[in-house]
Amino acid sequence: MLSPRARARLSGVFQALEGLPAVFGQTIVLGMLVVNGNASATAHNILANEPLYRIGFAIPLVAVGFHLTWALLI
Q: pLDDT for 33-42, tens place per residue?
C-alpha cells in the first residue's frame, strides 16, 4: 500500500498527464480539420482524413483514463 504522500504525488502526476492528450486530441488534431466559416470545407476535410478524425476523438479517451486513475487515487 502506498503512503498518503506517495498517493498524492502519484495522483498529481496523473492529473498533469490528463491535460496532454485532451489538448492534443481535441485542439490540435481536430483543429487541423476545421475550416472556420466554411462547413462544407470542414466536412470535406473530415471525409478526406477520416483516420485523423477518429484519432482526434480516441486520444482524449486516454485523458479520461488518466482522470479516472487520479480520481481513484484521491
A: 999 999 999 9
